[in-house]
């Protein structure tokens, strides 16, 4: 008797052998196995090896004789045997491999079945269809703007502050004094370790001079630091040598330290433990600059959150790679900036997944850590790119009375999946679709490609248009197409961090350093100078005065840090080689003989010591000027 049966391979691990109802049907590609139900059956071994517990669908064929119930009961321990006709077929390599698997008592690891999401019940409401720009949108509930302080500069607007005074709001005297103490301790430690360098303790006054030279070098570029102290060359730069010698400048730059060296040793012993602080060497200055940024200025309503890359080739586990950034390699900072002027309000250095304490993902945590209602107030508008935007973040920001808008990836959890009335590939440029879920608006707009935006601030469409070129008959024509309100406002206010980065790069003090943490020191100087200039512009705007340009501001700051005048006196014009008296006699009777010296030419040429009251104005050499002995003329025409 022969029969065909189908096998269900989803076998629970508790079953050690197939039940007697296990069925097999014919498959020439796998082999012939008898369905006897015994534990050593090669069919069972084949199933175990080829997917018995993995949930893989599998089909087997059997042309062997099906035993009767009497035969099974009379021979319970009898192993299955194959008919003689099928003996040759079992000699194939695959069948030998399957047959030999019974000798190996290894059972494959049992993997749990993947849970499939349940089908939606019929009682669930269907997803919303996408609406067009012609459909009315009431918009979200308006958030009232209540800042904690009056937006703008927090420095007294009635007073006039110099660039140095604004800079000292960030690098205060106490901050510089701490830097000097840590730098002196670090230099003394290096000398004790055997480093050969001359060191005298640096004072706050000298440190400000050093910062002035750092900013001077940021404005006038040279290929190497030594070029700023080059002499006797047409490429010489005279100013740095008049303020500080080259070796002293280089020694200070080698020993700058922001933290206490003794505490660094204690922190280094904690490596590999949760107590270890990766940013310990930055913390003293980093925290001072952050607090100064927040204390000196309160942002306007529109804010932007984005990453900033500080270029570095350091390999210490903190460096990142972002392909879309101008500086692809370096340290990543999350920055909160005022969209109106690029002021750096707050920032955080990225150190990995443990950078923030919230635990909802680095994108969510970064925004929630920077946007603090306790400092800002309520009613602010935060603009984000697609790296940060998510429906959960926007709803949570709205719950703390903060509006949000940004480009959103369609794969984010919570983004509408409806296909009813959605955009298609053939939709014309300017077509938009939207769905509102309470306070959160989702918009899809057709431009050169599909753009998806989320917002808790704007309505779907307010009548805005944007110009786009359209090729027609080989000639470009400009057409106006509809644009969603959220996208037009996003393009206007999202560039706050990019504007801040742009202002920093104009006169950046950044340079290569041997120690990775000194890269941050120069970046903190850049933040201080850029924010100082923005405060200067805000104060001039409040007092209806014309502000200085960025270049003029930096030039005055360098001069004030180095305690020199910005304007230098012109050298007197060269009058040429002319004879002048060596000394002017007060007594008229001594005019011919007062202050006479031996003529230089008479001594060297004629070996005579003739005295003369005249010298060359340019050379300073005493020379005879008389009718019969004009040594002045002969000296200058000697060569």
Automatic annotation (TrEMBL):
<feature type="compositionally biased region" description="Basic and acidic residues">
    <location>
        <begin position="131"/>
        <end position="141"/>
    </location>
</feature>
<feature type="domain" description="PiggyBac transposable element-derived protein">
    <location>
        <begin position="162"/>
        <end position="533"/>
    </location>
</feature>
<protein>
    <recommendedName>
        <fullName>PiggyBac transposable element-derived protein domain-containing protein</fullName>
    </recommendedName>
</protein>
<feature type="compositionally biased region" description="Basic residues">
    <location>
        <begin position="94"/>
        <end position="107"/>
    </location>
</feature>
<dbReference type="Pfam" id="PF13843">
    <property type="entry name" value="DDE_Tnp_1_7"/>
</dbReference>
<feature type="region of interest" description="Disordered">
    <location>
        <begin position="70"/>
        <end position="150"/>
    </location>
</feature>
<dbReference type="InterPro" id="IPR029526">
    <property type="entry name" value="PGBD"/>
</dbReference>
């Amino acid at each position: 008797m022969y029969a065909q049966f189908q096998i269900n391979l989803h076998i629970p691990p508790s079953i050690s052998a197939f039940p007697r109802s296990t069925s097999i049907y014919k498959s020439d590609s796998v082999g012939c196995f008898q369905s006897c139900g015994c534990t050593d059956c090669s069919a069972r071994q084949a199933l175990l090896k080829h997917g018995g517990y993995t949930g893989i669908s599998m089909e087997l064929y059997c042309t062997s004789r099906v035993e009767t119930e009497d035969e099974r009961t009379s021979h319970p321990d009898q192993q299955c045997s194959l008919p003689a006709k099928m003996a040759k077929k079992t000699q194939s390599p695959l069948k030998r491999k399957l047959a030999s698997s019974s000798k190996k008592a290894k059972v494959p690891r049992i993997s749990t079945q993947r849970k499939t999401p349940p089908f939606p019940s019929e009682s669930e409401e269907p997803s919303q269809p996408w609406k067009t720009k012609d459909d009315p949108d009431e918009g979200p509930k308006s958030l009232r703007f209540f800042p904690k302080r009056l937006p703008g500069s927090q420095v007294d607007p009635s007073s006039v502050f110099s660039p140095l005074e604004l800079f000292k709001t960030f690098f205060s005297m106490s901050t510089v004094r701490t830097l000097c103490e840590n730098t002196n301790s670090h230099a003394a430690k290096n000398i004790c370790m055997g480093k050969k360098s001359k060191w005298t303790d640096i004072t706050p006054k000298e440190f400000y001079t050093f910062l002035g030279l750092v900013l001077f070098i940021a404005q006038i570029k040279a290929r190497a630091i030594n070029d700023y102290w080059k002499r006797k060359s047409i490429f010489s730069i005279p100013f740095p040598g008049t303020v500080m010698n080259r070796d002293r400048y280089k020694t200070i730059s080698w020993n700058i330290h922001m933290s206490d060296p003794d505490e660094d040793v204690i922190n280094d012993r904690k490596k590999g433990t949760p107590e270890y602080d990766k940013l310990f060497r930055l913390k003293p200055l980093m925290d001072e600059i952050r607090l100064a940024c927040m204390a000196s200025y309160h942002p306007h309503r529109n804010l932007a959150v984005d990453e900033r890359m500080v270029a570095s080739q350091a390999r210490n586990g903190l460096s990142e790679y972002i392909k879309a950034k101008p500086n692809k390699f370096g340290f990543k900072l999350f920055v909160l900036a005022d969209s109106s002027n690029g002021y750096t309000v707050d920032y955080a250095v990225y150190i990995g997944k443990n950078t923030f304490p919230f635990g909802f993902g680095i994108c969510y945590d970064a925004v929630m850590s920077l946007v603090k209602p306790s400092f800002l107030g309520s009613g602010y508008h935060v603009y984000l790119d697609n790296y940060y935007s998510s429906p959960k973040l926007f709803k949570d920001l709205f719950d703390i009375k903060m509006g949000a808008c940004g480009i959103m990836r369609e794969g984010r959890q919570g983004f509408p999946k409806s296909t009813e009335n959605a955009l298609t590939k053939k939709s014309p440029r300017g077509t938009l679709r939207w769905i509102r879920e309470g306070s959160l608006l989702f918009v899809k707009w057709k431009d050169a490609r599909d753009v998806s935006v989320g917002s808790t601030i704007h309505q779907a469409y307010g009548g805005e248009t944007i110009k786009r070129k359209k090729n027609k008959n080989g000639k470009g024509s400009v057409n106006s197409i509809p644009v969603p309100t959220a996208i037009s406002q996003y393009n206007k206010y999202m560039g706050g961090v990019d504007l801040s980065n742009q202002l920093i790069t104009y006169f950046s003090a950044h340079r290569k350093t041997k120690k990775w943490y000194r890269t941050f020191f120069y970046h903190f100087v850049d933040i201080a100078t850029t924010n100082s200039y923005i405060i200067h512009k805000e104060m001039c705007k409040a007092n209806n005065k014309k502000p200085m340009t960025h270049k003029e501001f930096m030039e005055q700051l360098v001069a004030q840090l180095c305690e020199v005048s910005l304007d230098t006196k012109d050298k007197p014009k060269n009058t040429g080689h002319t004879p002048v008296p060596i000394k002017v006699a007060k007594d008229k009777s001594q005019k011919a003989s007062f202050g006479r010296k031996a003529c230089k030419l008479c001594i060297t040429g004629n070996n005579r010591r003739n005295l003369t009251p005249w010298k060359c104005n340019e050379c300073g050499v005493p020379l005879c000027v008389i009718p019969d002995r004009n040594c002045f003329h002969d000296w200058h025409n000697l060569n």
